[in-house]
Amino acid sequence: MAGRLLLRACTQTTLRLRSNVVARPLHRAMSSGKGIPTDDEQATGLERRALQALKQGKDPYSMLKPKEYAGTKADPHIVPSIGNQRIVGCICEEDNTAIVWFWLHAGDAQRCPSCGSHYQLVHHELPH
Asked: Which residues are recorded as binding Zn(2+) (predicted)?
């Protein structure tokens, strides 16, 4: 019973208070009149570096879909690496379930031992 009386008293006072309240627009303390900051204005650290690189047309963390190459000697598949060699897996046919693994070394384009597609190792610097 005391709980009901207390609940009723609270709801009546909040209803009276709400009828006198005037809605005011909210202001952000750090917006300085510009509104909500954009991702570029808010980004820091590695995220900021990635956004700046994407604006320049670079792909620092290989986030975008890789460019397709023909796989010929004139237009080999590009394989980025931070070292002088990298292991590569080639699926020689579209419906093949076996992967042909081979080492790719820096220098000229090399061929897959099974299908003959050409691959070339390109040195890639890490952005950080």
From this structure: 90, 92, 112, 115
